[in-house]
Amino acid sequence: MTSATRTVQEVAARFDELARQEKWFEIQEELFAEQVKSIDPPHSPYLGYAEGKAAVRKKGEDWVKKIQAVQGVYTTPAVIGGQHFAVGRGMDVMVEGFGRVKIDQIMLYEVKDGEIILEQFFY
């Protein structure tokens, strides 16, 4: 199935399948549009804004490189509304420069033409 034919429900289902396996870079590669935008909360001490598939991947890679230990993670099933879906995500990790970080967040995704065009984090 090509991405152009995927519905929001199909994108969310595939996202869920990969997220359960902690395959975040595979999610980016398979489901993200070339001009995807990634937005963290204003004044986030961890990450910021990135635009474009390569920049969003680098943002994720930079975060992963700083993780020294993982105490626990979870991702909830998606809730779908219109062209959006959201998941809950929790992390309890040791992060270089920050120490132990516990984040419980909502991750919101917007889908257009079968691809994710926006990810936005609320924590």
Give a quick set of tags describing it.
Nuclear Transport Factor 2, Chain: A; NTF2-like_dom_sf; 123 residues; globular; alpha+beta
CATH architecture: Roll
Helix and strand pattern: HHEEHEEEEE
Q: Can you tell me the residue ranges where pLDDT is under 50 for at least 5 consecutive residues?
A: none
Q: Under the CATH scheme, which class?
A: Alpha Beta
**Tally of separate helices:** 3
Write down the overall mean pLDDT: 95
What's the story with the biggest beta sheet?
A: 7 strands, mixed
Q: What distance separates the N and C termini?
A: 34 Å
CATH topology: Nuclear Transport Factor 2, Chain: A
Strand-pairing-aware structural class: alpha+beta
Beta-strand percent range: over 45%
Number of strands: 7
Helix content: 25-40%
Radius of gyration, CA atoms, in whole angstroms = 14 Å
